[in-house]
Design goal:
This protein has 494 residues and is α/β, with parallel strands linked by helices. Helix content is 31%, strand content 21%. The protein folds into 2 domains: 205 residues, c-terminal autoproteolytic domain of nucleoporin nup98; 197 residues, Vaccinia Virus protein VP39 (Rossmann fold, 3-Layer(aba) Sandwich), CATH 3.40.50. It binds S-adenosyl-L-homocysteine.
């Protein structure tokens, strides 16, 4: 079983840096079904090719035990129990789900888009050619085109004849697949990781619920909008309906988050339309409320003493740009469910222009706050700035469990509009919300009740303040809560 990855980017040998494999050596990895090798059949300045070969141990494959990890399980667990098919089958020769899991073992950091030596290149689209000479393709060669072409690949899928000497026998179920395009290497590898087992569609492997997370993660940035996402999801999850339904619901959430908002419909730009009524002297600068809010969040973060911080629901990255400027923050992670927002944040941060040591402090991850994400554990502090009001109220307990119960940062800083203040915005007096995507806005009492309940359930103390001019009747336009974890434990009674 074989995949090759080639580039004509100059110098092409940079491919070795991106894959973290020296082109002069043979790299071997133990995988559950045998041994994976990475070698470089060509490594010149103009063209470089890495090959991933998988040498399958038929006995390892035949062992009938469900394991975690990858849809890449052998066809061992057939419903009939022992069959000859467990030992005599095409698994050793055809690229399939097994190759896909070998891919994630051999190229783990490249698939994440990480590169210590060539971070700019890892973030850049480069000319690539991928070849899978024997790919089992259930549904015919056309399907390969339907799956890869929408992702920006030029697809050549040539059916392999059953027997070249007997053309009358027709074609086998295998194709010789070549993909050419200019893409980021991480995206290319994630496309293969997901779509090889989808094309193979061997149904007899064991699929654990954590496969949904793997699919969502590998599909970040491309699967939610893919025209064949339904087929991809069903096949990847081995036609388990409940799992596919849950995954498709998460992809739908991502698509929704990617829908643009008309800026003209957003109310709330300044620190109070109320200032004039409040009798501020003429000439006093009215600061945009967003700037005041960031300043208040930065101040609270500073007081918490945090060095490793999460900006959850980071949007276009306004707060991240402030965090990056401050060296006390040694690790900064922005997450959002919306890939559009993450792309804006990436541009705004100008990651490609930062020196590698600076760039290494920052990560942008697609992640939905209503699902547990192990990557978010162990941080000093997390910010939820103007995020909670974007969730439907029945989804809030899921966010609370994922953030306060699972990620469990030492400090959580939450900001949200103060609904009472809305009467001070011309146009909102009739009970409207400040932003078309807001699902609710809380009064001061409602926010205090929510924060108090979360703190009590998960072991955090709560202190609440206001941001922006403090109106004697209705308070400040923004509310801010700092929740500080009390014990070190994994508490949480919800
Ligand atoms: N914190 C940023 C953006 C606030 S807008 C700022 O203050 O400037 C709210 C952000 O939350 C949006 O970018 C939206 O995509 C994100 N978001 C909404 N629901 C989410 C969810 N369930 N998981 C992760 N992010 C979510």
């Amino acid at each position: 079983m074989l995949i090759t990855v080639s580039t004509t980017h100059r110098p092409a040998t940079d491919l070795g840096y991106l894959l973290v494999k020296h082109p002069d050596r043979v790299h071997a990895f133990g995988v559950p079904t045998g041994t994976a090798y990475v070698v470089f059949p060509e490594a010149g300045a103009e063209r470089c090719t890495a090959a991933l070969l998988l040498d399958i141990d038929p006995l390892a494959l035949a062992v009938d035990r469900p394991r975690r990890g990858g849809p890449a399980r052998g066809s061992g667990s057939t419903p009939e129990g022992f069959t000859l098919g467990r030992y005599v089958n095409d698994r050793g020769y055809a690229a399939s789900s097994l190759l896909s899991s070998a891919l994630s073992t051999a190229f783990r950091s490249a698939m994440r888009g990480d590169s210590k030596d060539r971070p700019e290149l890892a973030a850049t689209a480069i000319p690539l050619e991928l070849r899978v000479p024997a790919l089992r393709c259930r549904g015919g060669a056309d399907l390969a085109g339907r799956l890869f072409a929408p992702l920006g690949w030029m697809v050549t899928a040539i059916p392999i004849p059953l027997d070249p000497t007997r053309p009358d026998w027709g074609d086998s179920r295998y194709v010789d697949l070549t993909l050419a395009g200019t893409l980021r290497l991480a995206d290319a590898l994630n496309h293969l990781y997901v779509l090889l087992p989808v094309l193979d569609d061997a149904k007899h492997y064991w699929v654990a619920p954590d496969e949904i997370d793997k699919l969502i993660r590998a599909g970040a940035g491309w699967l939610a909008a893919h025209p064949e996402r339904g087929l991809i999801t069903r096949r990847y999850l081995a036609h388990r309906r409940a799992l596919a339904g849950a995954a498709l619901a998460r992809l739908a959430e991502q698509r929704l988050a990617d829908e643009p908002t008309d800026p003209d419909t957003v109310v709330e730009s300044y620190d109070g339309g109320a200032d004039e009524e409040a009798g501020l002297p003429a000439g006093v600068d009215r600061q945009p409320l967003a700037a005041l809010r960031r300043a208040a969040v930065l101040d609270a973060l500073d007081r918490s003493g945090a060095a490793r911080v999460l900006d959850l629901g980071c949007g276009g990255g306004a707060l991240l740009t402030d965090l990056v400027r401050n060296r006390r923050y040694t690790e900064i992670v922005g997450t959002d469910v919306s890939t559009r927002s993450l792309a804006v944040a990436e541009r705004r941060l100008r990651l490609d222009r930062l020196p590698p040591r600076q760039r290494d402090r920052i990560r942008l991850w697609q992640s939905a706050l209503t699902y547990r994400d192990d990557r978010l554990r162990g941080f000093d502090a997390a910010v939820l700035m103007e995020v909670v009001e974007h969730l439907d109220p029945p989804r809030l307990p899921a966010l609370e469990a994922a953030v306060f119960g699972h990620a469990r940062p030492g400090t959580v800083i939450v900001t949200t509009p103060n609904a009472e203040y809305n009467v001070r915005y011309p146009g909102l007096a009739d009970g409207g919300l400040r932003h078309p995507d807001h699902r609710f806005e809380w009064t001061r009492a409602e926010f205090a009740r929510w924060a108090g309940a979360v703190g009590a359930s998960y072991g955090y103390t709560v202190s609440i303040s206001g941001v922006g001019a403090d109106d004697p009747q209705v308070g400040s336009p923004t509310q801010l809560a700092v929740l500080a974890r009390t014990g070190g434990g994994e508490g949480g009674s919800r």
